[in-house]
């Protein structure tokens, strides 16, 4: 049997980040041989298909961060892509409300960041908030973000895979990469010679990076996001409604969003998960991963950089639907537990923990390795930013 022909670029992971990088590479170099490998039998099985579908605007992030640079541009690029491919986008906008006067300085800081990041934002009073979103409540002021929106994350991933194929790339599902090193990779079907490997393996990205000796300081800490859909008529909630987040954590707090079909949903939570793909029951449970989590959590809990104890104490009870709904009712008082009884598909956040610095990594992390590029912390808003992230990565790739 003859060996398979060499591949110019192999991408590990057919989530939105891997597909966006394959797409950007082929747009620039139409003759390049690009193959995307995804271990699952269908696309969007992990984060890229299990998220809130919020097109973020880009105002939360520290102005010197990749998140700040790539989210505003990613939002514009994703909208353009959706228009080109006929994927519906809902222009919901978003309001950020305060639950007490203590949160007003945090709201001002978000406004300031938005200004520096060049994101359209308006500070509104309670009367203006009522016009924008009659169901939301705030103390004194709120932020209005007109460029935040919604789309169906699975539809976006499928449309992007179609464009990669149209450009001449291959997208192989059910193809697990078991090992790799500079110039080669081994899937469950074949051994391939590759010019360059792109690691966009989401929850497994730290494992793949270590095959190349990259990102040794990192371990993945998984946080589970649960959702509950409302039975309200579509469009009753008009805008996404978010609280002011705790700046010490990379999560945005319990919020309400409007899906592209107009349904309101509550979530996601950020509950520490014992293993990476713990979507429900014991499926994909791994003794090794549970052990890793058991050794990492104490380091997270004693971290001087986060208030991990209060994060965990506030998140764990949200396993109970009524506790999660009660939290959301602080933003939108009319939500009631009996109206939010339909469970959404949970998602798991692939959050990197820097073991040496004892902190959660707050920004996207892109690292170069030998004949390889590693996207290590593609956390939220990575779905919004993916097309801009791909531009950023491809600009720096040494092919
Ligand atoms: C609950 C939740 C809510 C979120 N909400 C939002 C939001 O509203 N807006 C937003 O912008 N972002 C949001 N995000 C973040 C966003 O979903 C991620 O940033 C984005 O999906 C990351 O994409 P990815 O391609 O890196 O990862 P993934 O989608 O996880 O893709 C990685 C792929 O790699 C594959 N893989 C792994 N290992 C291997 C291997 N060895 N061989 C082959 N394939 C492999 C997996 O099967 C998977 O398909 C949210 C995330 C979560 C979890």
Identify the overall geometry: globular
In the CATH hierarchy, the architecture of the largest domain is 3-Layer(bba) Sandwich
Spell out the CATH superfamily of the largest domain: FAD/NAD(P)-binding domain
Number of helices: 10
- CATH class identity of the largest domain: Alpha Beta
**Which structural class best describes the helix and strand composition?**
alpha+beta
Brief sketch in words of this structure:
This protein is of the alpha+beta class and 399 residues long. Helix content is 30%, strand content 24%.
Q: Mind explaining what this structure looks like?
A:
It is a single chain. With 399 residues, the protein is α+β, with helices and mostly antiparallel strands. It folds into three domains: 1-89 and 149-216 and 363-399, FAD/NAD(P)-binding domain; 94-146, no CATH class; 218-238 and 247-355, 2-Layer Sandwich (D-Amino Acid Oxidase, Chain A, domain 2). Helix content is 30%, strand content 24%. It contains ten helices and 23 strands. The strands form five sheets. Strands 1, 2, 9, 10, 11, 12, 22 and 23 form an eight-stranded mixed β-sheet that branches. It has a four-stranded mixed β-sheet with strand order 6-7-5-15. The protein has a four-stranded antiparallel β-sheet with strand order 18-13-20-21. Strand 10 (177-181) and strand 11 form a beta hairpin. Helix 1 packs parallel to helix 5 (153-166), helix 1 runs parallel beside helix 10 and helix 2 crosses helix 10 (382-396). The protein is globular. The model has no long low-confidence stretch (mean pLDDT 96). Residues 12-18, 37-40, 45-48, 50-54, 56, 176-177, 200-204, 225, 268, 347-349, 378-384 line the site of flavin-adenine dinucleotide (FAD).
């Amino acid at each position: 049997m003859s060996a398979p022909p060499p591949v110019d670029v192999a991408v590990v992971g057919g989530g939105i980040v891997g597909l966006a990088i394959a797409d950007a590479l082929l747009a620039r170099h139409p003759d390049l041989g690009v193959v995307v490998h995804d271990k699952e039998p269908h696309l969007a099985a992990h984060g890229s298909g299990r998220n809130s579908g919020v097109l973020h605007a880009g105002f939360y992030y520290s102005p010197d961060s990749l998140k700040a640079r790539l989210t505003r541009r990613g939002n514009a690029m994703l909208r353009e892509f959706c228009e080109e491919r006929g994927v519906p986008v809902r222009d919901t906008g978003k309001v950020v409300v305060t639950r007490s006067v203590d949160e007003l300085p945090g709201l001002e800081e978000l406004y300031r960041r938005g200004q520096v990041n060049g994101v359209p934002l308006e500070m509104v009073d309670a009367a203006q908030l009522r016009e924008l979103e009659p169901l939301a409540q705030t103390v004194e002021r709120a932020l209005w973000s007109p460029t935040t929106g919604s789309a169906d994350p699975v539809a976006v991933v499928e449309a992007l895979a179609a464009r990669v194929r149209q450009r001449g790339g291959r997208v192989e599902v059910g193809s697990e990469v078991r090992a790799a090193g500079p110039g080669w990779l081994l899937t469950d079907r074949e051994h391939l010679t590759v010019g360059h490997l792109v690691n966009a393996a989401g929850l497994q990205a730290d494992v793949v990076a270590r095959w190349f000796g990259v990102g040794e300081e990192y371990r993945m800490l998984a946080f589970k996001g649960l959702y509950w859909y409302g039975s309200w008529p579509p469009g009753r909630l008009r805008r996404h409604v978010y609280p002011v987040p705790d700046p010490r954590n990379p999560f945005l707090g319990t919020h309400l969003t409007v899906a592209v079909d107009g349904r309101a949903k509550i979530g996601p939570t950020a509950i520490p998960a014992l293993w990476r793909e713990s979507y429900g029951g014991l499926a994909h449970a791994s003794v090794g991963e549970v052990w890793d989590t058991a050794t990492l959590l104490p380091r997270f809990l004693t971290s001087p950089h986060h208030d991990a104890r209060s994060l965990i104490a506030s998140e764990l009870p949200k396993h109970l639907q009524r506790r999660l709904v009660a939290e959301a009712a602080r933003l939108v008082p009319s939500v009631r537990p009996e109206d939010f009884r339909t469970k959404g598909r949970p998602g798991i956040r692939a959050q990197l923990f820097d073991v040496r610095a004892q902190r959660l990594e707050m920004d996207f992390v892109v690292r170069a390795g030998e004949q390889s590029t590693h996207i290590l912390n593609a956390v939220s808003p990575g779905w919004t930013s993916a097309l801009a992230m791909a531009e950023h990565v491809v600009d720096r790739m040494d092919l």
